Amino acid sequence: MIFDDFISRAVIAGVGFAIIAGPLGCFVVWQRLAYFGDAMAHSALLGVALALAFEINILIGVFTVCFLIALIVGRIGEQSMLSGDSTLGVLSHSSLSIGLVLVSLMYWVRVDVLHFLFGNILAVSWYEILMIYGGGAAIMFVLIRKWNNLICLTVDEQIATAEDMQPVKNRFLMMVMLAAIVAFAMKIVGIILTVALLIIPAAAARQFARTPEQMAVLAAAFGVIAVIFGLMLSVEFDTPPGPSIVVNAIGIFIIGVVATTIVRKRKRRSG
C-alpha cells in the first residue's frame, strides 16, 4: 500500500510538471534560451542553501534566487562588455559552486546533495504536488493569455514593439515562469537535468508539429510519456528516477528524428 502511494504521488507530480514544461519548453527552444535555463537551474542549489540557512520553504528559496539571477542576467547583459554566453557561464558556475560550499558548511543540517542535483521524485509529498499544480495552473493561465504576444516576441521583437505587445514585460514574464519551473523541477529530475526535461520533449515535438500550438501539445504529451515510462523503468530496474525520465525523453526524440528522416527520404524518392 505504501509502495502504491509513493508511486502514485510520483506519477501525479511528474505528469503535472510535464504538462507545464511542454509548452514553456517550446519557447525555450524557439528563443534559444537553453543556456539561460541552464544558468538558472545551476543557481537553484544556491537557493536551496539559503532556504536551509534561513529556514524557509525550499521551493520559495529556489524561486527567489532563480528570479534574482534572471534579473541580474538582464541587467549585466545590457551594461557589461562580456557576451551573453560569458555572463551566463560566470553566473551559472559561480552560483552552483557557492551553493555547494554553503551546503557543506551547514554541518547542523543533513543534506543529500545528490537528491537536489538529480531529483527524488519518489519522495515528493502531497504538499509539493499541490504547489506544482497550483503554480502550473498559474503558468498555463499566463501562457494562454499571452500566447500571441510571446509568439510575436519570438518571431521578431521589433514587430512586437511596433504592435505595442510590450516585449519587455513579456520577457519579464518568461523569466518568472522559467524561475518557477526550475523550482518545481528540482524535486522531480533535479538541478542538473531540469533543462533536459524542458528542451528534449519540445525538440521531439518540433519534428512532427506544423503549428506552434501543435508543438506545445505534443511537447506536453511527450513529456507525460517520458515521465510514466521513466518511472516504470526506474521501478523495474532500480535505476534513478530523474535520469530514467530523461533517458525516455531522449528515446522519444531519437525515434522522432529517425521517423521523420525516413518519411522525408521516401517523399524525395517518390517525388
Short recap of the structure:
With 271 residues, the chain is mostly helical. Helices cover 85% and strands 0% of the residues. It contains 12 helices and no strands.
Q: What structural keywords apply?
A:
271 residues; mainly alpha; ABC transporter involved in vitamin B12 uptake, BtuC; 12 helices
Structural summary, described in words:
The chain has one domain (2-270): ABC transporter involved in vitamin B12 uptake, BtuC (Orthogonal Bundle), CATH 1.10.3470.10. It is mainly α and 271 residues long. Helix 1 packs antiparallel against helix 11 (212-237). It contains twelve helices and no strands.
Please give the structural blueprint.
Elements (H helix, E strand, L loop, with lengths): L1 H29 L3 H21 L3 H22 L4 H22 L7 H6 L7 H20 L1 H9 L1 H6 L4 H22 L1 H17 L5 H26 L3 H30 L1
Helix pairs in contact: 1-6, 1-9, 1-10, 1-11, 2-3, 2-4, 2-9, 2-10, 3-4, 3-9, 6-9, 9-10, 10-11, 10-12, 11-12
Termini gap: 58 Å
Low-pLDDT runs of 5+ residues are: none
Strand content: under 5%
CATH architecture: Orthogonal Bundle
The secondary-structure class comes to mainly alpha
**Highest CATH level, the class:** Mainly Alpha
Instruction: Report the CATH superfamily.
Output: ABC transporter involved in vitamin B12 uptake, BtuC
User: Which percent bin holds the helix content?
Assistant: over 70%
SSE series:
HHHHHHHHHHHH
How many structural domains?
1
Largest sheet: none
- The counted number of beta strands is 0
3D shape = globular
Mean pLDDT: 87
Number of helical segments with 4 or more residues: 12
- Report the C-alpha radius of gyration, rounded: 19 Å
Q: What is the CATH topology assignment?
A: ABC transporter involved in vitamin B12 uptake, BtuC
